[in-house]
TrEMBL record:
<dbReference type="InterPro" id="IPR036396">
    <property type="entry name" value="Cyt_P450_sf"/>
</dbReference>
<dbReference type="GO" id="GO:0016705">
    <property type="term" value="F:oxidoreductase activity, acting on paired donors, with incorporation or reduction of molecular oxygen"/>
</dbReference>
<dbReference type="GO" id="GO:0020037">
    <property type="term" value="F:heme binding"/>
</dbReference>
<keyword id="KW-0408">Iron</keyword>
<dbReference type="GO" id="GO:0006629">
    <property type="term" value="P:lipid metabolic process"/>
</dbReference>
<keyword id="KW-0349">Heme</keyword>
<protein>
    <recommendedName>
        <fullName>Cytochrome P450</fullName>
    </recommendedName>
</protein>
<keyword id="KW-0560">Oxidoreductase</keyword>
<dbReference type="Pfam" id="PF00067">
    <property type="entry name" value="p450"/>
</dbReference>
<dbReference type="InterPro" id="IPR002403">
    <property type="entry name" value="Cyt_P450_E_grp-IV"/>
</dbReference>
<dbReference type="InterPro" id="IPR001128">
    <property type="entry name" value="Cyt_P450"/>
</dbReference>
<keyword id="KW-0503">Monooxygenase</keyword>
<comment type="similarity">
    <text>Belongs to the cytochrome P450 family.</text>
</comment>
<dbReference type="GO" id="GO:0004497">
    <property type="term" value="F:monooxygenase activity"/>
</dbReference>
<dbReference type="GO" id="GO:0005506">
    <property type="term" value="F:iron ion binding"/>
</dbReference>
<dbReference type="InterPro" id="IPR017972">
    <property type="entry name" value="Cyt_P450_CS"/>
</dbReference>
<feature type="binding site" description="axial binding residue">
    <location>
        <position position="75"/>
    </location>
    <ligand>
        <name>heme</name>
    </ligand>
</feature>
Length: 134
């Protein structure tokens, strides 16, 4: 959960009013799974939801996808984290095929700061055959 303190009275876009000194608490984990925000498939792993009709990456509002915070408190490492994610994805996915060790196992998380997968996520990685592209 993230907590913020209101420094002045304000009215949010939906009409909700907050007063100076109010604490606002939000939970990014829950927000990332809300059907109200993401649609009926909110809990499904669909990487293509981040692509436009031409297959190009489209940014969501940092206030909708709040993993890196937003506004004046946005994470200064966001762009670096995105670059690392893209580099590792290209290298790993172009070199290996990944399959879950147990495709019937339900994935659950430990309630901690970083929400690790309870018991880990065990996969088999096998080298891709033929030429790969970096």
């Amino acid at each position: 959960m993230n907590v913020r303190m209101c420094f002045s009275d304000d009215t949010w876009p939906d009409g909700f009013s907050v007063k100076k000194g109010d604490m606002v608490v939000y939970q990014p984990y829950a927000m990332g799974r809300m059907k109200f925000i993401w649609g009926d498939d909110a809990e499904e792993f669909r990487p293509e939801r981040w692509l436009d009709e031409n297959g190009l990456f489209q940014d969501e509002s940092p206030y909708k996808f709040i993993a890196f915070s937003a506004g004046p408190r946005i994470c200064i490492g966001k762009d670096h984290a995105y670059m690392q994610m893209k580099i590792f994805s290209v290298v790993l996915l172009s070199s290996y095929i990944f399959k879950l060790t147990d495709e019937t196992k339900v994935v659950t998380y430990k309630t901690m700061v970083t929400l690790p997968i309870d018991g880990g996520l065990h996969v088999h990685a096998s080298p891709r055959l033929g030429p790969t592209r970096p």
